[in-house]
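[recover] target loaded
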């Protein structure tokens, strides 16, 4: 299959089958696939072990668990873990997100309706408005908020006692949080990308739940293309299941998975059409770089932000592209991944290799 020449780059990042963010289709299926307790939750050994201690200790004391901050890329299991925390504490859970809380009043309304021990999951906590954030400080520390009634000089702050609750905050980058907020969490868990073995376990588990027949090499093939992310693994599994049903006998073997994912333009390493367009332009048009981000974006017909925020993080993480002060540069691995030879090697010079050594 020809991956590069003449292909139109993906234009809508949200449509990507390899996006870590949830789409509408995911949300319906994800509820069924979410592990229900810590024992079922695959991988993240350290976070799981530490969280297990935090929850057991709280249960032993008959107290509400400490506030928990979970950081990590989309699709790594932060929402799932927050639900597990609630389940393990035998508590109800309320789910909201930073962007949904624009006014302190929005937050006050949520906080004042919590029941004792309830878990409040606040996704994208770094995107909350400043006044809401300040209200949260006090609520987390003293289980109290000041509700301002009236306007101007006549405004008065009425203190409102809250029942003890557990806040589970999720963020893609803990570094984005102001230190006063970060410090109010009793426990911070950093979610890592999953190894292919762990993803294979996620896929096998999901296949069981979805009643899909999958061979070991089928699960391995999907795992290798899932970019370290369970949400992507589950999504690719569903796409491959469709293919297996229509084009094969319904059984997902390694070969069936590979053929299916070629149709969806996800290559052996999990790169999709956009990723490959960026790398191909970098290699073919700019000899591997360095080239400026804007120039590269124009060459692939995408917005600068799309290249920078959607394609590059994975390419950098995979060691295929480097961001240098002089511009974007392809690594030797990028050349070999696309089956091309760097020009320096053709002429025998060491060329840009120096950029990656030492
Ligand atoms: P996040 O909140 O970090 O974006 P989610 O918790 O919504 O991610 O997880 C996305 C999907 O991936 C869920 O449907 C869940 O089934 C699956 N998933 C995530 N982490 C795990 C895991 N450790 N084990 C099994 N499935 C997982």
């Amino acid at each position: 299959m020809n991956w590069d020449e003449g292909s139109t780059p993906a234009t809508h990042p949200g449509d990507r089958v390899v996006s870590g963010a949830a789409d509408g289709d995911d949300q319906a299926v994800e509820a069924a696939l979410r592990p229900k307790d810590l024992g079922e939750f695959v991988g993240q050994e350290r976070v799981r072990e530490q969280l297990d201690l935090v929850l057991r200790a709280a249960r032993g004391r008959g107290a509400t668990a400490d506030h928990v901050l979970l950081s990590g890329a989309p699709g790594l299991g932060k929402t799932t873990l927050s639900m597990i925390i609630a389940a393990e504490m035998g508590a109800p859970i309320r789910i909201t997100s930073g962007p949904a809380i624009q006014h302190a009043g929005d937050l006050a309304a949520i906080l004042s309706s919590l029941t004792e021990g309830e878990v409040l999951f606040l996704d994208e906590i770094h995107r909350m408005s400043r006044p809401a954030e300040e209200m949260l400080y006090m609520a987390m520390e003293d289980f109290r908020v000041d509700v301002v009634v009236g306007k101007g000089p006549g405004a008065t702050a009425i203190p409102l006692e809250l029942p003890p609750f557990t806040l589970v905050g999720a963020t893609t980058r803990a570094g984005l949080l102001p230190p006063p907020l970060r410090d109010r969490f009793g426990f911070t868990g950093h979610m890592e990308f999953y190894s292919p073995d762990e993803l294979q376990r996620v896929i096998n588990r999901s296949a069981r739940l979805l009643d899909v027949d999958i061979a070991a090499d089928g699960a391995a093939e999907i795992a290798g293309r899932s970019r370290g992310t369970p949400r992507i693994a589950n999504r690719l599994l569903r796409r491959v299941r469709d293919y297996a049903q229509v084009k094969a006998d319904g059984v997902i073997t390694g070969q069936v998975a590979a053929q299916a994912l070629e149709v969806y333009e996800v290559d052996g390493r999990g790169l999709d059409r956009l990723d490959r367009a960026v790398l191909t332009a970098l290699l073919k048009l700019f000899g591997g770089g360095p080239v400026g981000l804007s120039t590269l974006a124009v060459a692939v017909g995408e917005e600068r932000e799309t290249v920078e925020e959607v394609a590059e993080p994975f390419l950098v993480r995979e060691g295929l592209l480097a961001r240098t002060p002089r511009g974007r540069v392809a690594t030797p691995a990028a050349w070999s991944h696309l089956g091309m030879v760097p020009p320096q090697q053709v002429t025998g010079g060491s060329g840009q290799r120096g950029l990656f050594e030492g």
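[recover] notes: The chain is about 45% helix and 10% strand.
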